[in-house]
Amino acid sequence: MDRDRALVNVLLEREGRTYAEEAGIALADRPAPLYQLSVLATLLSTRIRAGVATAAARQLFAAGYRTPEAMAAASWQDRVDALGRGHYRRYDERTATMLGKGAELCLQRWRGDLRRLHREADADLGRLRELLMEFPGIGPTGADIFLREVQAVWPDVRPFVDRRVVEGARRMGLPDEPDRLARLADGNAFARLASALVRVSLESKLADELMAAAPG
């Protein structure tokens, strides 16, 4: 357990930033940041590097598209241009369309407030995933990304792990069961740990570097 905690401390210190933080989202249980997280989940769902997806999200938000109202009001070309400035070029046209349709869905179905989606799921994680996958461009992977990040502000979702977190935990020699892993990082820190483990799963040499840096 001491070795596990040492590994977790190194993970949190060196790689413990969420993807929402990288995208400039001040995540909170409020309509705008929750919507922004759905945008990020859409961008991360394509076969593109996470750094490009977070850069594209920052460009969309810098252009003022931080709410579903603003995203829906933007022209398709404006969305394409913002994605392009973030170098999100391969999927920019298709994604611009999906973001517009997703904004309209958010407004029509949940009146722009994804806390209503959360309440509609009524603490049923499976139902929550189903509702998230109603957004164009958010499939099982995108729903998992959203849940992995949102557990920082929706405590009933914690501890949530997806296959990337499990893979990263195994590479680090840490428990891969959610409850056991959660004992090593309490509360909001668990979302940060999950993001760190995702990075471990994506970067083959990172686990060795982090394990070498951990005391004990």
Please give a handful of descriptors for the protein shown.
single chain, 216 residues, mainly alpha, 14 helices, globular
Descriptive account of the structure:
By secondary structure, the chain is an all-alpha fold. Helix content is 67%, strand content 0%. It contains 14 helices and no strands. It has helices at 2-15, 19-22, 31-44, 50-62, 68-73, 76-85, 92-110, 114-121, 125-132, 140-150, 163-172, 178-182, 189-202, 206-213. Helix 3 (31-44) packs antiparallel against helix 4, helix 8 runs antiparallel to helix 9 (125-132) and helix 11 packs across helix 13.
Summarize this structure briefly.
The chain is mainly α and 216 residues long.
Give the biggest beta sheet: none
Q: How far is the first residue's CA from the last residue's CA?
A: 11 Å
Measured as a percent range, the helix fraction is: 55-70%
Task: Name the shape in a single word.
Answer: globular
> What gyration radius follows from the Cα positions, in whole Å?
17 Å
Please indicate the percent range of residues in DSSP E strands (runs of 2 or more).
under 5%
Number of helices: 14
Oligomer: single chain
Low-confidence segments, given as residue ranges, are none
Secondary structural class: mainly alpha
Average pLDDT works out at 95
What's the total count of β strands?
0
Give the SSE order as H and E letters: HHHHHHHHHHHHHH
